[in-house]
Specification:
By secondary structure, the chain is α+β, with helices and mostly antiparallel strands. Helices cover 37% and strands 14% of the residues. It is built from three helices and four strands. The strands form two sheets. A two-stranded antiparallel sheet has the order 1-2. Strands 3-4 form a two-stranded antiparallel sheet. The longest helix is centred in the first third of the chain and has 16 residues, at 18-33. The chain is elongated, with a radius of gyration of 16 Å.
């Protein structure tokens, strides 16, 4: 849910990670500051966003394991966010960070 200036809109994001929700909120703030309304059209466009390249991309390995590929522009903060996300993912096995 994004809200501001007396308006509110629900946004469903197709990619994981609460830290990426902050990026979504920042993009919405720039849009509103540029004169666009906080409305269903903005919510639709944000929900259709797909991160570039290796940014929070879930890949299925031949073994069936799910790999969270987040090597694009990796830095200490993005690595910490990725580890937080991995820690919150329910799994029947173990999580491995490399």
């Amino acid at each position: 849910q994004l809200s501001g200036a007396g308006e509110a809109v629900a946004v469903g994001l197709a990619w994981p990670g609460p830290h990426l929700g902050a990026c979504c909120a920042a993009a919405a703030a720039v849009a509103v500051a540029s004169g666009l309304p906080l409305d269903a059209e903005l919510a639709r466009r944000l929900s259709e966003y797909n991160p570039v390249g290796a940014r929070m991309r879930a890949v299925t390995a031949p073994s069936g394991a799910t790999i969270l590929d987040d090597v694009y522009n990796a830095n200490p903060l993005s690595m910490a966010n990725g580890l937080d996300l991995l820690a919150g993912v329910p799994a029947s096995g173990r999580g491995i960070a490399a």
